[in-house]
Every structure is written in structure tokens, then in C-alpha cells.
UniProtKB/TrEMBL annotation:
Residues 7-175 form the DJ-1/PfpI domain. It comes from Cellulomonas dongxiuzhuiae. Gene3D superfamilies: 3.40.50.880. InterPro entries: Class_I_gatase-like (IPR029062), DJ-1/PfpI (IPR002818), INH-QAR (IPR052158). The lineage of its organism: Bacteria, Bacillati, Actinomycetota, Actinomycetes, Micrococcales. It comes from the Bacteria. This is DJ-1/PfpI family protein. Pfam families: DJ-1_PfpI (PF01965).
């Protein structure tokens, strides 16, 4: 079986926010099931071992960072675990190495703080969770922080705001990589039509 030319990898780590992972994964996996492009969507951790999400959910990834291979899109979620990752030289070096070989780098929530710490957002527009906008500005003073957007598409880097905004970003990725019509079909299929009851 030949590998799909479209490969999306969602990085997971201890302290990741569960919906930052599962929201985009649901969108992208739903897309993969119906798209003639047959995108490969997988999760991976640094060493391939399971991780514990910020609120306790356990996740078993598909593979490791070493084994994941070439990706078209990297999704870097946020969560409390990013506080460690954004000051971890080896993780930041890995992010930079992924930037060098991955056409589209994306983040959810405080994943953008890691991108900023790695130098990926220098002089670029970006966003993050509304409670961490100041932290994004502090991580790199040159970042053009967007305080209102659900996601910011700056070509080869896409950042999204907090938690559920990762779903919006993932739907945008489907529209960008295939079509708006396909993104609408995916959105309808997962019944994502935000109308908060409160």
C-alpha cells in the first residue's frame, strides 16, 4: 500500500489539553474517511508512549516523533504541558527541525507559545487562548498578536485560539487542502454548528 501524499500529524504530550487534540482529530479523521485525497491522519508523541492529558484523559498515540516520517501538516496542541515544552531546548530544536521540512505548521491554543519560543512566529500575526495573549507577546515581542480571531492563517503557519477553536482551524485546513464544500460536509457530519445554550 502506498503512503498518502497528504499526511497530518498531531503531536501529543503529557499535560496536553484533550480537546486541542481530539477536536482537530475528529475533523481531520472525518475528512480522511470521505476524501478522495485519502489523507493520512495520525497522532504521535516524542517517544511513542502514551500520554496523560491535562484533565486526566489517557491517550495512546500511533507512533513516535522519530518514526512519524514526513508530514504535510503538523498540529501542535496546547495545554499546561506547553509551559515545560517552551523552555525545553531539545523540544524547541525539534520544532525548528519540523519547520524546515513540514510545509504547514499549525498550533492550537498555547501551542503557539511553543512556536513563538522556537522563533517560528517572529514578525508574524498569530493568536492563542485569550488568557495567554500577553504570554504570546512576551514569548516574542515581534509577534503581531491577534486578540479576536478564532484562527490566523499566515501561509505556512496557522495558529488558533483556545481549545474549541482548534475545530474551526481544522475545518479551515480541510477547506484549504481540498475545498470549502468538503469542509462544509465534514462540519455537517460532525454536527458542529456552534449555538451556545447559555
Amino acid at each position: 500500500m502506498t503512503e498518502s501524499p497528504l499526511r497530518v500529524g498531531i503531536f501529543v504530550f503529557d499535560g496536553v489539553e484533550a480537546l486541542d487534540v481530539v477536536g482537530p482529530w475528529e475533523v481531520l479523521a472525518s475528512w480522511a474517511r470521505q476524501s478522495p485525497l485519502r489523507p493520512d491522519v495520525l497522532t504521535f508523541s516524542a517517544d511513542g508512549a502514551g500520554v496523560r492529558c491535562a484533565k486526566g484523559l489517557g491517550l495512546v498515540p500511533d507512533t513516535s516523533a522519530e518514526q512519524v516520517g514526513r508530514l504535510t501538516v503538523l498540529v501542535h496542541p496546547g495545554g499546561h504541558g506547553t509551559r515545560h515544552l517552551m523552555v525545553d531546548p531539545s523540544h524547541l530544536a525539534w520544532v525548528r527541525s519540523m519547520r524546515a521540512r513540514t510545509p504547514l505548521m499549525t498550533s492550537v491554543c498555547t501551542g503557539s507559545l511553543v512556536f513563538a519560543a522556537a522563533g517560528l512566529l517572529t514578525g508574524r500575526p498569530a493568536t492563542t487562548h485569550h488568557e495567554h495573549l500577553d504570554a504570546l507577546a512576551s514569548a516574542d515581542r515581534s509577534v503581531l498578536v491577534d486578540t479576536d480571531a478564532r484562527f490566523v492563517d499566515d501561509g505556512d503557519v496557522v495558529t488558533s485560539a483556545g481549545v474549541s477553536a482548534g475545530i474551526d482551524m481544522a475545518l479551515h485546513l480541510v477547506a484549504r487542502l481540498e475545498s470549502r464544500a468538503t469542509a462544509r460536509l465534514v462540519r455537517r457530519g460532525i454536527q458542529y454548528d456552534p449555538a451556545p445554550p447559555v
